[in-house]
């Protein structure tokens, strides 16, 4: 018995996820981007929604809360630090807390930056990480509310998780992230190989999600802000890695 994850598209470039605990049948939607795709996925699987786990307050992650709560009577868990910005939360959690969906336990990890209260959900037994907009395949979310230091600290915490962790992020941005990454880290063999695989997947109409965290550790420049070659690229030799992270984020913002 374990966790089954169903992956499906939502909105224009979001991903929706259903996390189904096999032992109990409880099923959580990870974020609530759009009701109709979530309903279709539930029907296709024959599952009943019991929970929604919210990562942050942006509308493309919370818009369907009210409709799904009315339809299924679900329990909605979300970030305590953003409770004033998200309607319909029943359970408030923060860094270090645990959330149970049936027999599956998720560790809550704070990842501020994209939003100040952004959290992610990590299943350490099954090796699943629902990272929303804190960590993308070959990228990270825009730093809308936070500052580079805490955002880099959050990324380092995710980087410390096991390499075989499967990451389920909020959006399909991998191809554009790969193009930027190659522009600043062109000699990275792991990145070049990953970019080729990504192109093949997208050209075939297939998703790049989930991805293995270990691959991203080697290829994602945002996870390598303490690598000397990236510091050299930005003329920041000897600088604090948080400053290099900030330079990478600024570079992607204007790429």
From TrEMBL:
Alphabetical UniProt keywords: Hydrolase, Metal-binding, Zinc
Signal peptide start-end: none
Gene3D superfamilies assigned: Ribonuclease Z/Hydroxyacylglutathione hydrolase-like
UniProt record, GO biological process: methylglyoxal catabolic process to D-lactate via S-lactoyl-glutathione
Cited InterPro entries: Clx_II_MBL, Glyoxalase_II_hydrolase, HAGH_C, Hydroxyacylglutathione_Hdrlase, Metallo-B-lactamas, RibonucZ/Hydroxyglut_hydro
Positions that bind Zn(2+) 1: 56, 58, 114, 133
Domain Metallo-beta-lactamase as annotated: residue spans: 13-171
EC number from the UniProt entry: 3.1.2.6
Catalytic activity entry: an S-(2-hydroxyacyl)glutathione + H2O = a 2-hydroxy carboxylate + glutathione + H(+)
Family recorded in the similarity comment: Belongs to the metallo-beta-lactamase superfamily. Glyoxalase II family.
Protein role: Thiolesterase that catalyzes the hydrolysis of S-D-lactoyl-glutathione to form glutathione and D-lactic acid.
Subunit structure as annotated in this protein's UniProt entry: Monomer.
Name of this protein: Hydroxyacylglutathione hydrolase
Organism: Devosia lucknowensis
Higher taxonomy: Bacteria, Pseudomonadati, Pseudomonadota, Alphaproteobacteria, Hyphomicrobiales
